[in-house]
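Thread: Modeling a multi-component assembly for a lab meeting

Hi all, long-time lurker, first post. My supervisor asked me to bring a structural picture of a complex we are working on to next week's group meeting, and I have zero experience with this. I have the sequence lines for every component (230 residues in total). Could someone generate the structure of the whole assembly? Inputs are pasted exactly as I received them:
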Amino acid sequence: GAGVSQSPSNKVTEKGKDVELRCDPISGHTALYWYRQRLGQGLEFLIYFQGNSAPDKSGLPSDRFSAERTGESVSTLTIQRTQQEDSAVYLCASSLTPGGGNYGYTFGSGTRLTVV
Amino acid sequence: AQSVAQPEDQVNVAEGNPLTVKCTYSVSGNPYLFWYVQYPNRGLQFLLKYITGDNLVKGSYGFEAEFNKSQTSFHLKKPSALVSDSALYFCAVRAYSGNTPLVFGKGTRLSVIA
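Re: Modeling a multi-component assembly
Sure thing. I ran the full set together rather than chain by chain. Output:
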């Protein structure tokens, strides 16, 4: 597609429920990243996929968080047993080359998750 | 480990005046440095980058940034601010070598007053 697409744009869920967030990267972009932006905070790295390599999961805050990516296409971020501190905007980005290369990342508009 | 510091949470400037948004970084080896801008309810947009070469890099919307290796800084500048420049600005860094993801600063909110 023309840009990075994320869905849903907004999600309100009850504490303890599981949620699944979706990211559709730019076609041909081999790298895909998930970041979290809490209110008034910077971007917190969560996970990074590069082609068929094992993902870099070093930023996942707990084992309630997991992510999958099918080949070089769609990725889903799953949060199990959501907690109120999970409330944030979840941003997905993709890049043509590993690590962003000379062109940086293209970001989606994000999913605003609210846990009540 | 890589890190970025944006020491100002908020910068206020009058329209037409020059603006500076500060960024310092820490990385092993040479850095890739980026600035992104986030408008309300929008995703982050790429502004400019430093990879190698001239220390002064020019980007979108009249912005520029100066790489200073000795001070490990990459301050964002614009000679004449516009009200439409009001947004949240993020500095980001990664090591030149390897494929580590970008590390972002906490962001600086720029407010340009008419």
